[in-house]
Amino acid sequence: MFPGERVPISSLSSSIDVKARREAMEKLRQKFLELLKKVLNGEEPKMIIPKRTLSNTIYDKERKLLLLGSETFERNFLDMREARKFMQTVLMASIIYEALVNNEYPTIRDLYYRGKHTIRYRDHRGRVEEENTWDEQRESDAVLRDIEVYVGLLREDMLILSKEKGKVVGDMRIRSGDDVIDLSKMGHGAYAIEPTPDLIEFIDVNAEFVLVVEKDAVFQQLHRAGFWKKYKAILVTSAGQPDRATRRFVRRLNEELGLPVYILTDADPYGWYIYSVFKIGSITLSYESERLATPKAKFLGVSMTDIFGDPETGKKPYLTEAERKNFIIKAKKTDIKRAQELMNYEWFKTPKWMKEIDLFLKKQSKLEIEALTGKGLRFLMDTYLPTKIETQDFID
Amino acid sequence: MFPGERVPISSLSSSIDVKARREAMEKLRQKFLELLKKVLNGEEPKMIIPKRTLSNTIYDKERKLLLLGSETFERNFLDMREARKFMQTVLMASIIYEALVNNEYPTIRDLYYRGKHTIRYRDHRGRVEEENTWDEQRESDAVLRDIEVYVGLLREDMLILSKEKGKVVGDMRIRSGDDVIDLSKMGHGAYAIEPTPDLIEFIDVNAEFVLVVEKDAVFQQLHRAGFWKKYKAILVTSAGQPDRATRRFVRRLNEELGLPVYILTDADPYGWYIYSVFKIGSITLSYESERLATPKAKFLGVSMTDIFGDPETGKKPYLTEAERKNFIIKAKKTDIKRAQELMNYEWFKTPKWMKEIDLFLKKQSKLEIEALTGKGLRFLMDTYLPTKIETQDFID
């Protein structure tokens, strides 16, 4: 099942990848060797895998993280109901292992294609039957997730790559692959974060906080106007819903460098959800949160009280009546529904978030970040953002 | 209407931007000064603007480009039917001019917000009426396009920014802003192209061709495995439909450095359209093609004859029968419809493209690039791509 190292590790790959590859191979081999030993000893071959169900997903209030609980399930080869899934898991593990050995960098789509074939066999009455290994990527993705939790390696650790949208600039040096990259020397462009951000080494940093901007276009504007230079920021964009690599990169900036992380999104439930994915993790993939989420991230804005002010605290709005009239977008039914859903999440049940969501439901209004740059980029850069940060006017 | 330079150009902006800003201001000022002079001389204030209609969009067979024809229209302030559009155009020009003066970097969304307000006026019977400058971004975008063709400046020349998906790596040094960037020292990450690629200076390059990959994940794989080092390529991804900056960047690589450009997409009408946008330009924005399109770009694959072979030329397929069975995706109705539409475009009316589209319609099959990496990344990198390039097996 597991071929030896037939192909020499190519000199074209970085030395970092060579090391990561060996570590992942070792872990995979060990875990599946246990299984093989069971067979050789005449024991039942079975895997004990943490459950990835909603009921086994726990919000840890202390750590402020979505985590997998302690429930597990058995995948037993000799159980007819489990045999197919068992075979799929072993198939996937062997494909990943081969890719590691052969110095490859598969994507999850590749893994699906590589494993997809039809098995012909004779049933107990001697009839020829056909069965597909898997039909849809949904199936192969679920098997991959089983392997991630079973072996205790994220896909990135196994050098499985994916498309990557995150970008960064700031006064910081990193080592990626065999290169040292100065993130303050990117000109008008930016550094596109690699799909395996755990392999990045932080060399040195000269910054006071991280600003994560939902929208790439706003990132471009702030970058170009020198926001990160003037305010000593590391500027990151997720370009919409954050992918895994951007989340992990931001988490590492917070955890390892101690930099506070502020998230800037549109003022709407979609923006709040982006914040929530950065901070807590996603519900369907809670096993990743432990490494990908940034529990200390703060929602900087745009908040409903930024738009309307807050009579309770005496906070004045950043928009005038006329600006509200011109800039506000009426919330859609789907926005309202989404807001009501968010109210049920444990981590939104704080006084500040309840006020935010209540105000949204009352006003049925949303606002884009661009409405603030519509007031002038200087307003966003030199008034709104510094004031929000200085007065600690964020939502936790 | 046009304020002077109230705010000093900030030291935070690059010197390149300072220069670009002055040039754009000068051009805008000159063009609208003409208008003002007409008013002062008692003449009718009117603009003569090239028509951006389909009938004035011409496919230039020689240059292989979609271009605007010579038809123009008049926008006359004193014509009641035109007065609103005239005012919108002047409003937009003044917003752009102010942004240039104030050292800003608006997006088209900002321009929409900045101009959006309600004008109250009394009609000829003395009644108070209200009129919005514009209601939707579609309206303000159309006005911006009028200004682009009227003044002869693309939005990027006026430092209007946008979100940007394109990435590049390769053995090449560029100057962007005030920095020199070595695109061969990006580690596992990549250089995210700036929204104003005309401001990039090419310093030196050591490459033989440009490979543009539709899919970011495939770009990541080829980059990581050292494709560009081994085959002396500049590797670019558009991450789906190419944006303006990626198109302009690729065009400059071709035109100024003389590098052949090969485009790699999925084998389906959506992929062909991506190729077509790179090569010819988009029909709705033909005035940009002159600067954004790369007429010499070649479609490298994945082609239908790569999948099925070609009995006429004796070309053997890259996929086995079993692989076709596993990897091919059945074409949807929308794919068929799209393919039939493409057949009507002048630039697809070549023998090779007709064969390609015919084969697609006959087999009703499509294929993703990932199906090739499903055969192994080494297959894509060391067999498929080099063979296709060496044997010049592309479609023009």
Distance between the termini of chain A: 49 Å
Number of helices of chain A: 15
CATH topology of the largest domain in chain A: Dna Topoisomerase Vi A Subunit, Chain: A, domain 2
Mean pLDDT of chain A: 92
CATH class of the largest domain in chain A reads: Alpha Beta
The tally of domains of chain A stands at 2
Please compute the radius of gyration of chain A using only Cα atoms: 24 Å
Q: Which oligomerization state do the chains in this entry correspond to?
A: homodimer
Task: Please tell me the CATH architecture of the largest domain in chain A by its name.
Answer: 3-Layer(aba) Sandwich
Strand content of chain A: 15-25%
Helix content of chain A: 40-55%
Largest interface: chains, residues each: A-B, 72 and 72 residues
Largest sheet of chain A: 6 strands, mixed
How would you describe what is shown here?
Two copies of one chain form a homodimer. Chain A is of the alpha+beta class and 396 residues long. Chain A folds into two domains: 143 residues, Arc Repressor Mutant, subunit A (Orthogonal Bundle), CATH 1.10.10; 224 residues, 3-Layer(aba) Sandwich (Dna Topoisomerase Vi A Subunit, Chain: A, domain 2), CATH 3.40.1360. Chain A is 43% helix and 18% strand. Chain A is built from 15 helices and 17 strands. Chain A is globular.
